[in-house]
Amino acid sequence: MKYFYLVWCNLRRKKLRTLLTVLSILVAFLLFGYLAAIRQAFNAGIDVAGADRLVVRHKISIIQLLPETYESRMEQIPGVDNAMHMTWFGGIYQKPSNFFAQMPVEPEELFDMYPEYLISDEHKKAWLDTKSGVIAGRQIAERFGWKVGDRIPIQATAWTHKSGSETWEFDLVGIYDGAEKGTDDTQFFFRYDFFEESRAWGSGLVGWYVVRVDDPQKAAETAATIDAEFANSPRETKAEPEGAFIQGFANQVGNIGLIIMSIVAAAFFTILLVTGNTMAYTVYERTSELAMLKAIGFSDRGVLGLVLGESFLLAIIGGSLGLGLAWILVSMGDPTGGTLPVFFFPVKDLLLGIVLIGLMALTAGILPAMQAQRLQIADAIRR
Amino acid sequence: MANPLNWFSQVVSVTRFNLRTLPQRKGSSATAIFGIAGVVAVMVSVLSIGQGILRTMESSAAPENVIVLRSGANTEMMSGLSGDSTNIIAEGPGITRNEAGAMASPELFVVINLPMRSTGTDANVPMRGVRPQAFKVRKEFRIVEGRNFGWGLNEIIVGVGAKLEFAGLDLGSSIEVGQELWAVVGVFEAGGGLAESEIWVDAAVLQPAYRRGNSYQAVYVKLESREAFQNFKDALSTDPRLNVKIQREAEYYASQSTMIYNLITGLGTLIAVMMGLAAVFGALNTMYTAVSSRAREIATLRALGFRSGPVILSVLAESLLLSLAGGIIGAALAYLAFDGFRAATLNWSSFSAMTFSFDVSPELLVQGIILAMLIGMIGGLLPAIRAARQPVATALREL
User: Fold this and answer.
1) Distance of CA A213 to CAs A52, A57, A206, A218, A286, Å?
2) Shortest CB distance from B274 goes to which of A31, A64, A157?
3) Complex ipTM, two decimals?
4) Are the beta carbons of B83 and B50 closer than 8 angstroms?
5) Which of A132, A137, A128, A139 is nearest to A161 (CA)?
6) E strand segments, A39-101
7) Which of A307, B17, B107, B359 is the most exposed place for a label (fewest CB within 10 A)?
């Protein structure tokens, strides 16, 4: 403990420099934390994709529709446990930049297929009882300040209303939560029967299917069987595991994500290098002092420990403050104001951050510390 | 400051003296330069992504061009216009005419899933069904390899961006559309615009393949002048046979890119601000170290009669010089590494892939160097003041 005090005193001697060094380390780790959250957002959903779920879409492209009748045909395929359909509504709430997914679904099917969407029985019942009812994810409801009972107008883009009106009116009857942090709670689900009877065109057609298989081990086989079932028909399908489907989407956006990530990773290391250099310099400056310590009886190892201790203390203070601040900032919401469906600081990256703090302390401290260890008292004091 | 000339010559001589001692402080000066170069390089490269997207969108638009969609649709993808409606639109007032008639191009816009070269996973590649006027309405459309597709044939031409990013679009290969094979017979450029991410095909071939009957999604119109817009818009929006939304191309493309542009510039700015802070701390540290390691020299100068103004300015000048060097290196690095770098992303509003190249524009380079100077200014000012304020006697006595 007495050595800790010595280290602490050393750091306090040049308060300003210590403060500046701590602040640079803080910023580096703040950046790191933010980065982790952004990377998570770009890969949204891959971690939480159901291993037992397939996504089945039109073979040529996702924008082409499939008949609603495929559902019962799929459910008869051996290996398929359940199938449900979804359709991209693509409407606008107030302004186009308020982007979020709206999809007509069959309510009972949704909760059966996605047990990770948690909703109270009361809200579920209200949805089953209200044809124009809609349930929204917690995050999206909070973003727009929606309360249960609100009437939400959505302007149609592709799906015009039978009445000729461009606006669809929905009643918010419930809010669902995600079971896990990575669960997408920005979606807006309304009833397919309401959609079917109100749409001006496309009756009997749906966007894509989500299929649950009996045995996740045989997911690929089952996907092939599904595609074979509809092969050579006017509307062929392409089935793939949900994870692969989401990965494909992430890859499409991700090219950019990857580039940003690598640029910023380079930046992170630049900051670390610069800071490490400053830390090394402060030791160099004190050569004669360290020699003095040795002269009064400190062992070589003791001096090594002192210098390393100093760099560890700096890195730990700066690093943990940075990670903590990143944690707070990230939980305050994403910087784009809601464009990213999930935005949080993953625990595994927090751990990686802690490892990096140690690594940084070691790389910045080890050379000067070894120099201090090797110091010849007579030479150093004469300098 | 009795004698300005004397004052000025003091500044010059102290600065020269400072700079001459720079080699003695190689380590910490190089660190400062390196740090600032890093910050500038990162800021410029991230912002060049946003800039590139913006430029792609801007070069897609011609000032006198107009896009007509179904009312309520905010993208081509969501729009739908019957063949009859497109004919009525082509009769609107103020449309430029050429030998083939009114320069109004009805177009079909769909996506087709093709694997990306980089990952092998599917991308939503935009595919456009066109009629002959499409080539006339767009400026700078040019076939650079092969030839145009034949009307009525299962042939396609692909944009240069699409060819680079998506697999199977090389000249001579073909893509599978349902039961048919469509051959790639040409590669085109379109002035760097969005169309370069697309596949083009005869609309009459695309309609049945996507079960669209005789319908289209958008009409691109070339007006006689920019000013003809209002008249054209009024005529079409009051026509009882039509239910359409009329926008200038520039407006339309701007609305298409808002989301992705904001996302990237938002992130870019955030990252730049954070890194800028770190660099300011680094620069402060470097300059404080520089000042404190020369405390005696500075004190000696002041004892000799140098005033504090020149001392402050000289430290500032050193810091600015270091940051300028860092800024230039950083900007140059970003330029060399990323200018023209091609990438693809998903255009969320139209649900389809777009390719673009990073644009390290001169403005961005200047911005980066300004940022560097700002860091140098902040990093140099406080240490400079400290240098000037140190009591001469104490500093001289210091070890």
Assistant:
1) 5, 16, 20, 8, 68
2) A31
3) 0.72
4) no
5) A132
6) 53-58, 66-67, 80-86
7) B17
